[in-house]
Structure formats: structure tokens, C-alpha cells
């Protein structure tokens, strides 16, 4: 099973590199969207704990 995980990780990295070199604008937009989603999630968690302590 270790070889399967290694193969999948390798394929994801190769696909990411291919996408980065062939479509740099789209990959930059994907990274921006990912960071925005993480920021929204963190903001929601902060709001939850703020409301919980009030």
C-alpha cells in the first residue's frame, strides 16, 4: 500500500507542475481562491469562539 500512496503523491505533484507551467494565470487564481477559502474558514472559527464566549 505504501507504493500506492507514493504513486498518487507523485502523480499529483506532476499534474501540479504541468498545470503551473502550462496555465500560470489559472494556477495563480487557484492559489488565491484556496487562500481565500482558508481565510474564510479561519474567520468563521474565530466568530464561533467569539460568540461562544459571549
Overview of this structure, please?
By secondary structure, the chain is mostly helical. The chain contains two helices and no strands. It has helices at 2-22, 24-53. Helix 1 crosses helix 2 (24-53). The longest helix has 30 residues, at 24-53. The N and C termini lie far apart (48 Å). The mean pLDDT is 92.
How many beta strands in the DSSP annotation? 0
Estimate the global geometry from the Cα principal axes. flat
Strand coverage percent: under 5%
Q: Which structural class do the helices and strands define?
A: mainly alpha
Oligomer: single chain
Distance between the termini: 48 Å
User: Which bin fits the share of residues in helices?
Assistant: over 70%
Q: What's the total helix number?
A: 2
What series of H and E elements makes up the topology? HH
pLDDT average, as an integer? 92
Tell me the Rg in angstroms: 17 Å
Query: Unreliable runs, pLDDT <50, ≥5 residues?
Result: none
What tags apply to this protein structure?
54 residues, mainly alpha, 2 helices
Please summarize what this structure is.
Helices cover about 95% and strands about 0% of the residues. The protein is an all-alpha fold.
Amino acid at each position: 500500500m505504501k507504493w500506492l500512496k507514493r504513486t498518487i503523491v507523485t502523480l499529483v505533484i506532476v499534474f501540479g507542475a504541468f498545470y503551473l507551467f502550462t496555465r500560470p494565470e489559472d494556477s495563480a487564481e487557484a492559489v488565491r481562491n484556496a487562500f481565500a477559502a482558508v481565510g474564510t474558514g479561519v474567520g468563521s472559527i474565530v466568530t464561533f469562539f467569539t460568540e461562544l464566549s459571549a
